[in-house]
Task: structure prediction
Amino acid sequence: MITNDLQPLSIVDNVGFVEYTKKLQPLYSLPNRKVLSNTMLPFKYNEVRKKLHYLLNIVTHISVTTDMWTSDSQKSFLSVTSHFVRDNKMISAVLSTKEILGNHTSQNIATELKLIFDEWSVFDKIVTVVSDNGANIKKAIIEMLQKHHHPCVAHTLNLCVIDAIKAVPQVTVLITKCRAIVTYFNHSSQATEKIKNMQKQMGVTELRLKQDVPTRWNSTLIMMERICLVKEPLSAIITSLPNSPDFLNSSEWETLLDYTNLFKPVEAMTTELSGENYPTMSLVVPLIRGLQYAVRNRKMKTVEGESLKSRLLEVVWRRLGQLESDKMCAKSTFLDPRFKKIAFGNEIYANNTTKWLVEEVTSLIRQQNTSVSTNTPREASVDKSEVSLWDLLDVRVAEAKTICQNAPNVNANIQLEQYLRQNFVDRSNNPLDYWNRSQSTFPELYMLSKKYLCIPATSVPSDRVFSRAGQIINDRRNRLKGDKLDMIIFLNSNLNIEGV
Result:
């Protein structure tokens, strides 16, 4: 109950819960809060932690996301989540939710991240660290930890929408008017009751207006969509309400429809990239191209809508267009058997990615050949006075092996060409299933697929950690210590992971 349902530790002291427990089983003795906090919780945490540590120890590559958050009690926390491929499945696990003391300098952030990475023995296994574009966290990752940093694509999409809206003042005014209408209804029980009754009279579904969070554009989209859905009952009662806010005119309603129509593909892309149970970095390149195509083909009815559309296309290309040439994105896309080279809009980027992968496969083959040559004992001398029926074939096989070992670059090129000639996997299928079946056919590419397909496209996993933390640190638990919060979130997130 404490970890799954995020109940406060103090629940064992609540009179109602104590009585409820006695009714269920009079002979059961509830643990007190001290035992629960100091004995039971740490025991379970250490048990699960040991199992997760074993999983992280046997995988070769992991990617991590990280983010920072400040609670209502003004405590700052740093979250770290890990992502890796195990038994052809994506595994996501929370590593730490650590309270950060002092200023949020890049040095302090780097120090805490290094402690977490070393605690889990994963520092040398990290492929990339995904976070937002905050200058302090980027500097901590790139300059101080000398790790590859990848910006959160969801965060960048959010910035694209904000930039596009700011460029069209009429849309900003429209959002402000919609926000004022929603705020009015949320603070007026009379207005809420009136719109509810009007919806009953009209025989339509009863819907409440939704308030947005200005820092999250998709919540603004939800607010606008809801206003569109309640347009008729809203229009019927607004003039009869005291001190009602300014209402939308006909042209503003058309602009509102353009707004919701235009940004639906952006919302769909954000949702697609925010998953944790399937590879997401490989989706970035095809989804950016798909977003551009979807937005370009949206039909706008207003001048403001056309201006918003043009601006959105421009800012998406400026902020996201370069990701097609980003090595992490490009390799991940190439190694997704649903996309390969066809997802690239620019053939130059696709060819560059082929070269990068040939180089990496070549390096892996050389390493393996070196390992084989140093570990393989010399063959015992064989009496050649007797000729075997298999001697000729054995000689030819040995020659073929020598050619492959002496030309790893050729072997790498052949492997890439054969992979590209394979049929595309259906888009609804899991690409990890393909690689599980093909690991003996393309051994080096299989190794690289586990390296690049484990990278999350966003830092949303860390954001989800803070959503849970917000539920835990409330008025009933505002004195909860940082280490206990870490344990509860860790168990809440990791108890159901396969193998843990």
Summary: The radius of gyration is 29 Å. The chain is about 60% helix and 10% strand. The chain has three domains: 9-100+461-494, 157-325, 328-372+397-452.
